[in-house]
Amino acid sequence: MEKDLVEYIVKSLVDNPDSVELNEIEGDKSTILELKVADGDIGKVIGKHGRIARSIRTILNATNNSSHRRTVLEILD
């Protein structure tokens, strides 16, 4: 569910939604979401001073409270 949510948010922010790649790595107590976007779209996902990335992570943390699992978003270059 978290993967679909992040993918939807990111695809609505970027100019090239087809270039969005999101890999999910499952662990024992956490899940890592690795996000790759086109070079020109990286700034749109991170935002000024990281505000957009922080907002996406806040939404992820809000959805994780019920499942007791932690989801970490990593934005890759």
Write the SSE topology:
Blueprint (H helix, E strand, L loop, with lengths): L1 H12 L7 E6 L3 E7 L5 H5 L4 H14 L5 E7 L1
Parallel strand pairs: 2-3
Antiparallel strand pairs: 1-2
Helix pairs in contact: 1-3
Compute the CA-based radius of gyration: 12 Å
CATH class: Alpha Beta
CATH topology (level 3) name: GMP Synthetase, Chain A, domain 3
Shape annotation:
globular
Say how many strands there are: 3
Percent of residues in helices comes to 40-55%
What is the CATH architecture descriptor? 2-Layer Sandwich
Order of helices and strands: HEEHHE
Based on secondary structure, the structural category is: alpha+beta
Strand order of the largest sheet: 1-2-3
Low-pLDDT windows of residues? none
Amino-to-carboxy terminus distance: 24 Å
User: Beta-strand level of the residues, as a percent range?
Assistant: 25-35%
Mean pLDDT: 90
Subcellular location: Cytoplasm
GO molecular function, one term: RNA binding
Organism: Thiospirochaeta perfilievii
Subunit structure: Forms a complex with KhpB.
Describe the structure.
The longest helix has 14 residues, at 51-64. This protein has one domain (2-76): K homology (KH) domain (GMP Synthetase, Chain A, domain 3, 2-Layer Sandwich). Helix 1 runs antiparallel to helix 3. With 77 residues, it is of the alpha+beta class. The chain is built from 3 helices and 3 strands.
